[in-house]
Amino acid sequence: PAQAPGGYSAPPPPQQPYGQQPHGQQPYAQPAAAAPLSPDQDKQWASFAHFGGVIGFLPALVIWLVFKDRGPRTNVEGKEALNWQITFTIAIIVANILTIALGWIPVLGWLIGLLPLAVWVVNIVFSILGGVRVNAGGSYRYPVTLRFIS
């Protein structure tokens, strides 16, 4: 800091009032709205939301959040895929709890031990069916789904 006459420090420069920009600077630009998806892109992202279910709920969630306002098909199919993935996640947790709780029973435990695998296979089959049907131009509704997002 520069020394003022008399040995005192110079005062700091004045602060700008909240919400005002210093002279000559532009305020932050607002991001432009994303362009709508073309019909082919809409179909592509909608099918990816279903296909992504093979690896879990995150692809459906991200695709729906990013593209829901840009394409009507992606909005509908992304919600459907996400609702299925939430339902599947609940089912796999319940299957694992049953396996842990009842796995000690000799024959029943072995059968229940296969339940998480069976639920996972159902998820893979339904996710692929959904992706193929949407990619072919149709729509897909999972047979057993809790509708958390409407």
Structure characterization notes:
The protein is mainly alpha-helical and 150 residues long. It has a domain at 39-135. It contains five helices and no strands. The protein has helices at 39-51, 58-67, 72-102, 106-113, 115-135. Helix 2 runs antiparallel to helix 3. The protein starts with 38 loop residues before the first helix and ends in a 15-residue tail after the last helix.
Question: Helices, strands, pairings?
Answer:
Elements: H1 39-51, H2 58-67, H3 72-102, H4 106-113, H5 115-135
Helix pairs in contact: 1-2, 1-3, 1-5, 2-3, 3-4, 3-5
Radius of gyration: 27 Å
The global form is elongated
Using DSSP, what is the number of strands?
0
- Helix content class: 55-70%
What would you call the structural class?
Answer: mainly alpha
Question: Any low-confidence stretches, pLDDT <50, length ≥5?
Answer: none
Main beta sheet strand tally, sense and closure? none
Please give a handful of descriptors for the protein shown.
150 residues, mainly alpha, 0% strand
